[in-house]
UniProtKB/TrEMBL annotation:
This is Histidinol-phosphate aminotransferase. The keyword Zinc does not apply. Residues 27-315 form the Aminotransferase class I/classII large domain. Its EC number is 2.6.1.9. It holds the Pfam family Aminotran_1_2. Its cofactor is pyridoxal 5'-phosphate. The gene is hisC_3. Keywords: Aminotransferase, Pyridoxal phosphate, Transferase. InterPro entries: Aminotrans_II_pyridoxalP_BS (IPR001917), Aminotransferase_I/II_large (IPR004839), ArAT (IPR024892), HistidinolP_aminotransfase (IPR050106), PyrdxlP-dep_Trfase (IPR015424), PyrdxlP-dep_Trfase_major (IPR015421), PyrdxlP-dep_Trfase_small (IPR015422).
Length: 380
């Protein structure tokens, strides 16, 4: 009898290889357009490379100490992992038994349903509201005795929308205490709206809230794979236990520690990106696209069934964007030349619903592509 993997694993969508290398404007993966690292970070990476023959600190002691100091939290309430995506998986692995439910908005980060199925948990998608944001009321109504985790991606990937601080506080207060609310803040550093809650405030005020953050986006360390969780000590401890030993390598740890020391540069870079984001969104709205307000480093074009056509059109103009079949297109804010190329492409794309979209008849938020069929491309 041949070796047979678990049926749940065989049924999972595979990773779809991306072919963007030949396109000059790379706006699909929400990476930073600026390649140059701050000198202290580059120096820390070079020093760590020289020690590559040594195992890294499995406990990531220096990094956890710096994070604890920065966020005024005990080290026991923190865990690090290979990017916030790995921590998503570890949280589900640590908390869920077969048949337990993991809730998330849809469309949201595509790894949530995949990781739930990997752990024999049941993914529960809840449609976004008409503004392409989390419908927290519907999510509350969908909680059952089997619910173990509720993910709130804020800002939401791929729509960029946010829920207000008031709404999120009210939501957390009404979620049962045995359900963990995971606020996924991979794009927190790009938020300029003062009404958006800093998830760490919720962590300090509740025993059933955790926050995920990453060094891949604002800090420009996407290739090194490092992120962290802040939450209840019992959750952080369980997450650390299910992590792969030595998973966060020494180069990533050193780079993250150095990056935390140049916070001013990171903040200024995010400010520039946010300003350009708002400009690009304004240009797209002027072109007739119903782009929702975004607080991330990308914009969302809810193109529905024309999504594939737009992706192909953009590629023909040298621009790589990320399409989500049946729902829309996510476009990273890049450098000036990349953004100009994208806006030229969007300005020359014709579709029947463009005028109707301005009146709200195109791109209605919903479940769109079936969750079970979502392919992963490996990029956060």
């Amino acid at each position: 009898m041949p070796i047979t993997p678990r049926a749940e694993i065989v049924a999972l969508p595979g990773y779809a290889a991306r072919r963007s290398e030949s396109l000059p404007a790379k706006l699909a993966n929400n990476e930073l357009a600026e390649a140059a690292l701050p000198p202290p970070v580059a120096a820390a990476i070079a020093a760590a490379v020289a020690e590559s023959h040594r195992y890294p600190d499995m406990a990531a002691t220096d990094l956890l100490d710096r994070l604890a100091e920065r966020h005024a939290l005990p080290v026991e309430r923190l865990a690090v992992g290979c990017g916030s995506v790995a921590l998503c998986q570890q949280v589900i692995q640590a908390l869920c038994r077969p048949g337990d439910e993991v809730m998330f908005a849809w469309r949201s980060f595509e790894a949530y349903p995949v990781f739930a199925r990997m752990m024999n948990a049941t993914g529960v998608p809840v449609a976004l509201d008409d503004g392409h944001a989390h419908d927290l009321g519907a999510m509350l109504a969908a909680i059952t005795p089997r619910t173990r985790i509720v993910f709130v991606c804020n800002p939401n990937n791929p729509t960029g929308t946010v829920v207000s601080g008031e709404a999120l506080r009210s939501f957390v207060a009404r979620v049962p205490p045995d359900v963990l609310v995971v606020i996924d803040e991979a794009y927190r550093e790009f938020v300029t709206d003062p009404g958006v809650l800093d998830g760490l405030e919720a962590v300090r005020g509740a025993e059933n809230v955790a926050v995920l953050r990453t060094f891949s986006k604002a800090y420009g360390l996407a290739a090194l794979r490092v992120g962290y969780l802040a939450g209840p000590a019992t959750v952080a401890s369980a997450v650390r236990k299910v992590g792969v030993p030595f998973g966060v390598n020494g180069i990533a740890q050193a780079a993250a520690v150095a990056a935390l020391a140049v916070e001013g540069e990171v903040t200024e870079r995010c400010r520039r990106i946010a300003a350009e984001r708002d400009r690009v969104r304004g240009e797209l709205r002027a072109q007739g696209y119903p782009v929702p307000a975004t607080q991330a480093n990308f914009v969302w074009l809810p193109l529905g069934e024309r999504t594939g056509d737009f992706v192909a059109h953009a590629a023909a103009h040298g621009v790589d964007v990320r399409g989500f079949a049946g729902d829309g297109v996510r476009v990273t804010i890049g450098g000036p030349a990349e953004n100009a190329a994208f806006l030229r492409a969007s300005g020359s794309f014709l579709y029947v619903g463009r005028e109707l979209a301005q009146r709200g008849a195109v791109g209605h938020a919903g479940l769109g592509q079936q969750v079970a069929d979502v392919p992963l491309d490996g990029a956060r």
